[in-house]
């Protein structure tokens, strides 16, 4: 097995999960770190015993020449960093949201394709093991042909405490969280021909929208609903669970609160606990997301070694990002749109 030497840019809130996950993947080591903020850089370097530390990404990539770079910064920096990696022929992983605009995202995909380097977007929610259990069940044909789907994420969890920038942007829930739910809808039900979205802000202390309700028409000929909210106070807080409903010609699939999978088919109903494992470094309630980080990064290592395109490649993610952009346009105009025209 080829050893892979990685470098990480961005030592903030979420990158700690990425560092833990890399440490658990055989044959991969993070050999250098970069952050503009020297205190954050040193904190991460000490936690994970990485001595090579840089405050400048170009200096790090030129000196270290890693086998790949893991970009864990927020969206405004993504294009410059991905183009930097491409210019040095270094394969790159880029956190979601891939880019602030479709133009940036397309330019990043083109830069990597021109340079012949792999590019994966860290779109990890489709790697959550409960979501994969739903997909396996759907693919088995047990419930027949789907004619309705729902991907739902409703919570009142204080995400702003760990990620203060989420309260500050003009855009919030569709770009940050809806993006994951829209990607899950694509993963389960296929690509989308039309989207209708309505958004609103309930929490007066944030700038962007914290509620979104979206209707998707799929190429497969049926519709799904994707709804998300950070203004929903429930008896039991569900963060960060995505709930799924699928109705098919022969039965139904439900992924309910508490990671309970219920499948009703021609032979009756069965229940399964599809709770994600609590990895040694993980903590509740984030363990579901944390496990998906480990799984998507293991997938990247495998794809990089095999020379195959990762599932959530930059090119694939253009379709998810187009849904985000189209959702905002639809909500602003009160209309519906073909995301392929965005
Ligand atoms: P953060 O602000 O805590 O950390 C980002 C770090 O990047 C900061 O320390 C900043 O100094 C550094 N940085 C920014 N530009 C840089 C540059 N050009 N060179 C070097 N360092 C630079 O942000 P975060 O909460 O960790 O989020 C990072 C990204 O991860 C965001 O895009 C966010 O949406 C995403 N995220 C993904 C998930 C997921 O499940 N996939 C979960 C949370 C956050
Ligand atoms: O997964 C994410 O992108 C996070 C959160 C779950 C808090 O929305 O930002």
UniProtKB/TrEMBL annotation:
Gene3D superfamilies: Dihydrodipicolinate Reductase, domain 2, NAD(P)-binding Rossmann-like Domain
Molecular function GO labels: nucleotide binding
Superkingdom, taxonomy of origin: Bacteria
Name under which the protein is recorded: Gfo/Idh/MocA family oxidoreductase
InterPro entries noted in UniProt: Gfo/Idh/MocA-like_OxRdtase_N (IPR000683), Gfo/Idh/MocA_oxidoreduct (IPR051317), GFO_IDH_MocA-like_dom (IPR055170), NAD(P)-bd_dom_sf (IPR036291)
Domain Gfo/Idh/MocA-like oxidoreductase N-terminal: 5-121
Domain GFO/IDH/MocA-like oxidoreductase: from-to ranges: 131-254
